[in-house]
Specification:
With 390 residues, the chain is an alpha+beta fold. The protein contains ten helices and twelve strands. Strand 1 and strand 2 form a beta hairpin. Helix 4 runs antiparallel to helix 7. It starts with 26 loop residues before the first strand and ends in a 17-residue tail after the last helix.
Length: 390
């Protein structure tokens, strides 16, 4: 199944049959009830834009191009995780087609076990054809983009301390871009009072005189708009390697914490990275997402955990092996610092042990539900939960 097509394992394309849901992109909002029904082809940015006029927002991911469906069934960590929790926490109902071709409605009162599994259990149980979300009164936020040139190790140590005391309203996602002089791009979202946000963000905004500070009071739907300007800003200051269309590779996981040793490893990886490659760091687990009762959804919530991914791209096919090898080498080097269980949407290994570790105590319940609704493991191009019969 393919909705947004952002799967880190490349599982949204295959040599067999791809069920592309992009054409199913209807959005039906009910502002009075603060709910919305969306079809699986809708992307996060489309939904945020559609809700902006109502002064409402869904708790989704950080990238506006990511599909709402795949994001949510994998848990869904994003800008509002500290204030409101994960996307799966606000899924109140869904329609899906099972492996047998049955159309089912799921909610807390209809096929409740299957509903539980969909809120973080991934694409193991059926093809979701609509999702109903509870919305939040979010219209404007204090945030945007900060661009720095500074020592990577020193910044990561600052970032760790800064996020350890992060209020619920704060989310900061980091991208470190390799080059002759590495560039750090911080994307910030403060979903509370702007004046308070300005005070909280002052240490970050004053760290080593940023190259660009594009943080302001902005519409939530346009929080990341100025990210597009980073490339042109960098090209004026340092040459960027030409990157052709269509080739990219990324892998990631979750850190137990951003320790000093992990920060050193990240800095070393960037020092030896091909030009234009990058590391992403974020989804710091804190606030409301960690207050949800354990087992309420399949998503494991570990306070202080943080996601990472290494990303590279190229235009010349002859560079493929070298670029991909850098990503794989970097991810292997991060294993000593990584959580045994990763955020499922970032899990870059599809072996059974890694999947089971990522669901922890929830895995057995998921396997029982899988056995009931997909005993032949028809839906297996995913972080696969195997039916008990296999």
């Amino acid at each position: 199944m393919r909705s947004g097509g952002h799967d880190v394992l490349g599982a949204s394309v295959c040599d067999g049959l791809v069920i592309d849901l992009a054409g199913m992109n209807a959005i039906r909002a009910d502002p009075e009830r603060r709910t919305v029904r969306v079809e699986p082809g809708v992307r996060s940015g489309q939904l945020s834009a559609a809700l902006q006029g109502h002064g409402l927002a869904a708790a989704l991911g950080c990238h506006p191009g990511v599909g709402v469906a795949g994001l949510t069934v994998g848990g869904g960590l994003g800008w509002l995780l500290g204030k409101h929790g994960a996307a799966c926490d606000h899924l109140v109902g869904a329609d899906l087609v099972t492996a047998e071709g049955k159309k089912l409605r799921v909610s807390k009162t209809e096929n409740a076990e299957l509903f539980w599994a969909l809120r973080g259990g991934g694409g193991n149980f059926g093809i979701v054809t609509s999702l109903d979300f509870r919305l939040h009164p979010v219209n404007r936020v204090f945030g945007g983009v900060l661009v720095l040139r500074t020592d990577v190790r020193r910044f990561l140590r600052f970032y760790r301390t800064f996020m350890e005391g992060a209020p619920d309203e704060l989310t900061v996602e980091i991208s470190i871009i390799a080059g002759e002089q590495p560039v750090i791009v911080a994307i910030v979202c403060w979903s509370g009072d702007a004046a308070q946000g300005s005070r909280v963000l002052q240490p970050l905004r004053s760290f080593d005189s940023p190259v660009a500070d594009w943080i302001d009071d902005v519409a939530y739907a346009h929080l990341t708009d100025r990210v597009a300007e980073v490339g042109s800003l960098l090209s004026r200051a340092q040459p960027q390697q030409q990157r052709g269309p269509g080739y990219g590779y990324w892998r990631g996981g979750s850190l137990r914490e951003l320790s000093g040793a992990a920060a050193d490893q990240i800095a070393a990886a960037i020092e030896h990275a091909p030009g234009g490659s990058s590391l992403g760091l974020g989804h710091f687990m804190h606030g409301q997402v960690c207050r949800v009762e354990p087992g309420a959804t399949p998503l494991i919530r570990t306070a202080g955990q943080i996601t990472y991914f290494f990303n590279t791209g190229w235009g010349d096919p002859r560079l493929a092996d070298d670029r991909m090898e850098w990503v794989n080498r970097c991810c292997n080097a991060m294993k000593p610092f990584s959580s045994r269980g990763a955020y499922i949407n970032y899990l870059s290994a599809d072996d059974p042990a890694a999947v089971e570790a990522s669901y922890g105590k929830n895995y057995e319940r998921l396997a029982q539900i899988k056995t009931r609704y997909d005993p032949s493991n028809f839906f297996h191009r995913n972080r696969n939960i195997r039916p008990r019969a296999m």
